[in-house]
């Protein structure tokens, strides 16, 4: 789940400049920093249509024409009309295409301009302020992405909540208070969206994947990937751009955030820019939960059955598996980054039957997001859970204890292990299956050890 928003400008004209702007951490070229101003959404509403992108130089004054051609109206879909064409997955626009505009695009454009200014300010500060500035810019990006999918009434409500808030002063408590109110309102809108969908009229694939739901959760997952965990992905060139492959990764972190971030890495940062969807195989236990199971299915995840893996691979999908299973995700903090046993090698059998390459994947940083000090087994049995984690924050802080710690992650995609050199009978040969499984496990463990040796700080 690559970065980023399509560049859009504020209605206000930018000052002329000839010097190229330094690149931002997310790869976009920022605008030249300007003097501090009172940036409010209110200003964007009074300015009219948004300005064109890019720097503009002052033009010599010309006499006003006697008659001007009528201004071209931006094409928007009226509320209740036909639905607009869906955006490309995990990206705002295709190369060279104009950004898709909706009722909330004007306000989102102004937030994008303020986001760039906040990033510029953060780069010029020292101490802890830069990290806070980049977090503020990520929050503005999240709000702006959600706005592009909102209707006129929702966009007007967001403008009202942000009116009078100086969005460039992220050291002001009013900034975070305003952003918090907007995010809470947008979450409420997403909940209402889910409730409306419960009435029907939506399409899924054979496994329940709903592309509209993926588009809704995309901004949040991108925020977690870019801003919260600041994930660095390496080796994505080893992931096929179009053909089948089996991604085999270590599992950790109490909740399956690692699978979500692997999917974002492939969709956002793959050099081919194909924005592929990774189909992760989840534990059978999740299928028994009334709300979690349909949510996982809507986001493209499928139950961890060997036949599901083979069928998806035969359709040239990217499939991710976590052979450690519960032993990995429910691992105690003292056992972090020590791979558990990989079972009987069922993932190797699936790859051999589908003749799909095996790509070992390592995730470093997820072990610390929920430091699991103990497993309350009596409580887990009472609730029917496979484990009940006790961390320094959960369950002592209630819902706040579910918020993961903002550790810094690295995801490494190792060179693939080909399987097309084996015959069809290899999937039933225990020595071949266990040998390949152990080779994958050793590759993942060695890469984890190397990444840990390079890491200077958890955060």
Sequence-ordered SSE layout with sheet pairings:
Layout: H1 41-47, H2 105-123, H3 129-147, H4 152-162, H5 173-197, H6 211-228, E1 232-234, E2 245-249, H7 257-269, E3 278-282, H8 292-298, E4 302-303, H9 306-314, E5 318-321, H10 326-329, H11 346-354, E6 358-364, E7 374-375, H12 377-383, E8 389-390, E9 410-413, H13 430-454
Parallel strand pairs: 1-9, 2-5, 2-6, 3-4, 3-5
Antiparallel strand pairs: 6-9, 7-8
What does this molecule look like?
The two termini are 21 Å apart. The strands form 2 sheets. A 7-stranded mixed sheet has the order 1-9-6-2-5-3-4, with helices on both faces. The protein has a two-stranded antiparallel sheet with strand order 7-8. Helix 8 links the parallel strand 3 and strand 4. The protein has 2 domains: 153 residues, no CATH class; 210 residues, Glycerol-3-phosphate (1)-acyltransferase, CATH 3.40.1130.10. With 459 residues, the protein is α/β, with parallel strands linked by helices. The N terminus is likely disordered. The protein has 13 helices and 9 strands. The longest helix is centred in the middle third of the chain and has 25 residues.
């Amino acid at each position: 789940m690559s970065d980023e928003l399509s560049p859009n400008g504020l209605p206000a004209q930018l000052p002329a400049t000839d010097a190229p702007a330094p690149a931002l951490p997310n790869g976009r070229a920022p605008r030249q920093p300007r003097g501090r101003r009172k940036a409010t959404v209110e200003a964007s509403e009074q300015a009219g249509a948004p300005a064109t992108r890019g720097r503009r130089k002052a033009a010599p004054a010309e006499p006003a024409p006697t008659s001007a051609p009528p201004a071209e109206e931006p094409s928007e879909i009226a509320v209740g009309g036909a639905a607009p064409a869906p955006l490309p997955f995990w990206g705002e626009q295709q190369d060279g295409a104009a950004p898709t505009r909706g009722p909330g695009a004007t306000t989102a454009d102004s937030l994008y301009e303020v986001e760039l200014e906040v990033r510029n300010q953060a780069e010029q500060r020292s101490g802890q302020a830069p990290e806070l500035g980049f977090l503020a810019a990520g929050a503005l990006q999240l709000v702006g992405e959600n706005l592009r999918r909102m209707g006129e009434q929702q966009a007007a409500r967001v403008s009202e909540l942000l009116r009078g808030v100086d969005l460039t002063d992220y050291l002001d408590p009013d900034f975070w208070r305003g952003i918090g109110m907007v995010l809470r309102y947008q979450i409420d809108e997403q909940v209402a969206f889910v409730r409306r969908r419960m009435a029907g009229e939506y399409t899924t694939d054979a496994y329940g994947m709903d592309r509209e739901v993926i588009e809704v959760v995309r901004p949040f997952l991108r925020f977690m990937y870019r801003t919260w965990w600041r994930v660095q992905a390496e080796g994505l060139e080893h992931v096929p751009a179009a053909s089948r492959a089996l991604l085999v990764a270590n599992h950790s972190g109490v909740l399956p955030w690692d699978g979500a971030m692997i999917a974002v890495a492939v969709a956002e940062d793959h050099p081919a820019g194909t924005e592929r969807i990774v189909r992760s195989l989840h534990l059978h236990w999740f299928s028994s939960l009334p709300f979690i199971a349909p949510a996982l299915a809507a986001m493209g995840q499928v139950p961890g059955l060997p036949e599901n893996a083979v069928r998806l691979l035969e359709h040239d999908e990217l499939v991710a598996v976590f052979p450690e299973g519960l032993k990995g995700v429910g691992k105690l903090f003292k056992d972090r980054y020590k791979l558990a046993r990989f079972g009987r090698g069922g993932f190797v059998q699936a790859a051999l039957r589908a003749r799909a390459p095996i790509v070992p994947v390592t995730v470093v940083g997820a072990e610390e997001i929920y430091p699991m000090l103990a497993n309350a087994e009596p409580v887990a049995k009472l609730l029917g859970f496979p484990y009940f984690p006790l961390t320094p924050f959960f369950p002592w802080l209630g819902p706040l204890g579910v918020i993961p710690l903002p550790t810094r992650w690295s995801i490494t995609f190792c060179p693939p292990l080909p399987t097309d050199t084996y015959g069809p009978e290899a999937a039933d040969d225990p020595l071949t299956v266990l040998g390949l499984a152990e080779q994958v496990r050793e590759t993942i463990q060695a890469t984890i050890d190397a990444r840990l040796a390079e890491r200077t700080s958890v955060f």
